[in-house]
Amino acid sequence: MSFTIVLKFSRDWCLDPFFKRFNSMKFDRGECNLIMINNTQDLFISIEFFRHLAEKINEFKTIQIIQTNQTKSFRNNILNSRGVPHPFHTWSSQKSFQMIKLIGDLVKDEIHIQLEDDTLPHVDTINLLLLHMKDSKVSIAFGPVPHRERGFKVVGHNAYNLMKFDENGFLLARSNFPVYKIGVYECEAAGYCNIAFRKEPYKKAIQFIENLKVGIRGSGSDIYFTNSMKKSGGKILCDFSLWGEHMFQDNGKLKKNSVENTRQWDWVYNLKKRYYNIKFID
Length: 282
What we know:
Blueprint (H helix, E strand, L loop, with lengths): L2 E7 L5 H8 L9 E7 L4 H11 L8 E6 L4 H4 L18 H13 L4 E6 L2 E2 L4 H8 L5 E5 L16 E7 L5 E6 L7 E3 L2 E2 L4 E4 H13 L10 H10 L3 E5 L5 E6 L2 E5 L7 E6 L4 E6 L2
Helix pairs in contact: 1-2, 4-6, 6-7
């Protein structure tokens, strides 16, 4: 079955470790349409795509490179977060959601898998996600990844099991699954990395975000986007055998967060004080 992998890059320092892992992964490249998105003006990243894939480039069904030519200053513009409730805006805010819409236009296959430059997928990620997606009731399947924080002060990961919204759709509370889970579990929402999507629910989720009363569209928030698929009747599956790693730079040095550094928490919004309280569970 033909499927698509989308690689999203905006950091050049991720190239070497990411492709070392990606090239070691076993999956049917002959059925894979590979889309690589260089979300910067940096031509170096696009050139490096080819260098890292040199030995395997003829194994893929198709390869497409998209260079968005976004500047870092434009992506960091504070105006991008206007009207987006804290803390659900990202540093690239409006551009995050535009990226999701771009991917929706580019992908032609029923199933596509998104991989992020700063996350290292488990070596079995692609094959197992494709296996889970054989169930037509599954809209999303993914592997958990720790949040990225300097100094390994990690406060959770990207698999959410409890969520509460107000009447306008604003997220008031959420909790992530215990880190020690084993097996496959249904979730309320997921992060964008190491994740497989089904085409039609993905398109409907874009429409949901565009019509949401809360001013969240600019954030491209993965929580709202993925949770809408659950609300529409689809399943969101997290496979806890597929723990990935999250990379970051600390004083110029590459570091990685793994499952050993994660913690479970509850995150509750204080309506009066207008900020979030975090309660650590383990």
